[in-house]
Amino acid sequence: MRWICAWIALLALWVTSAAAAPSREDLELCLNPYRDVKWDQTEHYKANLHTHTTESDGKLEPAKVIDLYSALGYRALAITDHNRSTWPWETYDRSPDDYDYTVVETACERATDFAVSAHAGFEVMNSTARHVGDEAMYLGLATGDPGLLTFIERYVDIKFEILKRTIKAAEGGIDFIKIGEDLGTQRGPRISLEMFHERIRPVHQRFVDLAKEHGLPVMIHSCGSSSWAFDDFIEMGIAVVDTLQPEAKDMAPAYLKKRYGDRLAFHGCISTAGPVATGSVQDTIDYCRRTLEIMMSGGGYCFAPTHQLQDNTPTENVVAMYETAREYGTY
Fold it and tell me: Which residues lie across from 74 on neighbouring strands?
């Protein structure tokens, strides 16, 4: 009898749920993140991000695949053969030099009123973790996992060649090179100094040396408590450090200016989690003035928030921040 009652109860629940369910017309499912793009105002490029060659189960050799898509007007091609990396293309007598970087010079010409940077487009730790996860990234760096290190090497090789060709194509239109590596948490380093020397510094040194070849200064973006690596930055030839989160350990403006102000320039230092986000207009003005008084002394400071201002920041504080910089932050 209990079984029958339970069955009837479940049947009643199903009937009630079915009756309450909305009709298909009432449902709206959006799986298109591009639906608001104004396609008539956007440049279109042909791309194939998944294709195979005779290196796995494809029908054409790599060189023929590259030539075919180039002839058809494709601007991007990813060869994704199974269980192997069909790279570099020079192995198949094809070079990225054969492809189009002319848009770089045009982009630089449009920005002549600004300082133009070219970004290396990677970070050893963060870029790797996006592909394999944080745990595998940390373990791989610590143990010297051959697969992980090979991935980093090939990924960086691609980015290096892209940057080298971009600098050349810019014809002097680039003013500085930007690289990045988030080295700290709020309380201290993400990795040991030894690991930085072994796994991280040599990778970035390639890009610093490339910039030196072209007479371009280098800015490095590094979040969190990163001042423990600043002496290395100086030895490497890096000129500017970006973000400078003042809440993090050993990142207070006075500490940075006293210890490194005669050897590094600074970009940032205005906290996105401090008075600009949580204080009044007067708090914001006072905070920005104090930072300017410390960091401007002797030159070498570019006023900026540590990150993009967040949506919890009152508009009036944002306005006050930049008005303070314009009034008191000009050399």
Answer: 46
Residue that has been written with the tokens 């070498």 in this structure: 300
Give ranges for CATH 3.20.20.210 in the chain.
101-328
The topology (CATH level 3) of 101-328 is TIM Barrel (3.20.20)
In the three-class reduction of DSSP (H, G, I as helix; E, B as strand; rest coil), residue 262 is classed as coil
pLDDT digits (tens, 9 = 90+) for 225-261: 999 999 999 999 999 999 999 999 999 999 999 999 9
Question: Which phi and psi (to 5°) does residue 8 adopt?
Answer: -65, -40
The β-bridge partners of 292 are none
d(CA 100, CA 97): 8
Cβ proximity of 159 and 121 under 8 Å? yes
260/90 Cα distance (integer angstroms) = 43
Q: How far is CA 212 from the centre of its chain?
A: 22
- Beta strand spans in the chain (E): 46-51, 74-79, 117-119, 176-180, 218-222, 240-243, 265-270, 301-305
Q: Phi first, then psi: give them for residue 264, nearest 5 degrees.
A: -135, 150
Task: Please state the pTM of the whole predicted model.
Answer: 0.74
Tokens linked to 46 = 């042909």
Separation CA 168–CA 101 (nearest Å): 9
* pLDDT tens-place string over residues 64-87: 998 888 878 788 889 999 988 888
Contacts (Cβ under 8 Å, ≥6 apart) of 309: 272, 276, 277, 318
Rounded CA-CA distance 294/256 in Å is 10
